[in-house]
């Protein structure tokens, strides 16, 4: 199969028929063998009924419905598992991403041999103060920390080679950092394409201010996991050793000083308590490292989700 289009959604019943028809029109014009996979992330409207009716009219349309809302990362992860296309394109269901961008994204994966191509909504139709300006700060921080030169990490319109989607896991709220996850898994040929951003036609945005705070915390988390996820003791053990040596050194100094001068009051000095605290923290960091090693080797179920129903898969 040439192409899989994955569309995560939450309460987007109004836009689905138009989106499905648009994707189909573009894919048929390019003679792709394709599938469209809608992932209903616990919608409370008629989204699943719409997906079911679309499936009845076209067997290339497939669907996954979660029992409850797990988030966009879970939806994408399940979509990646189900995708059969050699190129996988993800896009939002609100019609703000244009399916007309798909052929060029596919070409960049197939001909320019990119592992991943991320869209860049250079001209946006979102609110300047609540989305555009915070997004610029968020992306600048992500570029600085990850060393990936992308302008729009959170753009929903992305294209992947099949080996990327089958080689990564997306969990928590890490969908914002799929390029970072891909990089840490060895897929470093990451490109960018300016894409059209359209004004929302139906419904309202599902994201608020909290996503920027969560996004920064997630960036810290994914950076740590990328570097030390398989070897957490290298981080905690290193700092535990440094802190413990500092505490031990101060303690040795105080003990020697007490031996030289018996009148020296050891416990009356602030440095005594500093040495004690540093030694305790050093031991705690060691213990944290050991626990992290145990957790990292026994976390195979972190991507298990309750799926109520599937069609076409």
Give the overall form. Answer: elongated
Structural class: alpha/beta
In sequence order, what are the helices and strands, one letter per element? EHEHEHEHEHEHHEHHHE
Q: How many domain units? A: 2
- Tell me, what is the CATH class of the largest domain? Alpha Beta
> Major β-sheet, in short?
8 strands, mixed
Assembly type of the shown chains? Answer: single chain
Q: Quote the average pLDDT.
A: 86
Spell out the CATH superfamily of the largest domain: Spore Coat Polysaccharide Biosynthesis Protein SpsA, Chain A
Got a strand count? Answer: 8
Question: How would you describe the overall organization of this protein?
Answer:
This protein is of the alpha/beta class. The chain folds into 2 domains: 3-228, Spore Coat Polysaccharide Biosynthesis Protein SpsA, Chain A, CATH 3.90.550; 232-296. 48% of the residues lie in helices and 14% in strands. It has 10 helices and 8 strands. The chain has helices at residues 16-29, 47-57, 72-82, 102-110, 128-146, 162-165, 178-184, 210-228, 232-260, 270-296; strands spanning 3-9, 34-40, 61-66, 87-90, 116-120, 158-161, 190-194, 307-311. The protein has an 8-stranded mixed β-sheet, with helices on both faces. Strand 2, helix 2 and strand 3 form a beta-alpha-beta unit. Helix 9 packs antiparallel against helix 10 (270-296). The longest helix has 29 residues, at 232-260. The protein is elongated. The two termini are 14 Å apart. The mean pLDDT is 86.
């Amino acid at each position: 199969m040439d192409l899989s289009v994955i569309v995560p959604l939450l309460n987007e019943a109004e836009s689905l028929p138009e989106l499905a028809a648009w994707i189909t029109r573009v894919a048929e014009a390019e003679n792709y063998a394709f599938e469209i996979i809608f992932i209903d992330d616990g919608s409370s409207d008629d989204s699943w009924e719409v997906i079911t009716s679309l499936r009845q009219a076209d067997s290339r349309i497939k669907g996954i419905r979660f029992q409850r809302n797990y988030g966009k990362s879970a939806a994408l992860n399940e979509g990646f598992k189900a995708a059969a296309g050699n190129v996988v394109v993800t896009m939002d269901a609100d019609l703000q991403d244009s399916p007309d961008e798909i052929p060029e994204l596919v070409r960049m994966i197939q001909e320019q041999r990119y592992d991943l191509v991320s869209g860049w909504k250079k001209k946006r139709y979102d609110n300047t103060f609540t989305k555009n300006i915070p997004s610029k700060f968020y992306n600048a921080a992500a570029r600085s920390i990850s060393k990936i030169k992308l302008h729009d990490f959170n753009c929903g319109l992305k294209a992947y080679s099949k080996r990327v989607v089958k080689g990564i896991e997306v969990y928590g709220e890490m969908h914002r950092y799929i390029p970072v996850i891909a990089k840490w898994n060895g897929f470093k040929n990451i490109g960018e394409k300016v894409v059209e951003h359209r004004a929302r036609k139906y419904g309202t945005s599902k994201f608020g201010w909290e996503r920027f705070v969560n996004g920064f915390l997630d960036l810290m988390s994914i950076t740590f996991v990328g570097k030390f996820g398989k070897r957490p003791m290298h981080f905690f053990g290193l700092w535990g050793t440094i802190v413990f040596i500092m505490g031990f050194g101060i303690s040795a100094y105080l003990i020697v000083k007490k031996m030289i001068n018996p009148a020296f009051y050891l416990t009356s000095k602030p440095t005594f308590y500093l040495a004690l605290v540093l030694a305790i923290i050093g031991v705690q960091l060691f213990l944290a490292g050991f626990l992290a090693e145990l957790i990292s080797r026994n976390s195979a179920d972190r991507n298990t989700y309750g799926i109520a129903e599937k069609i076409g898969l």
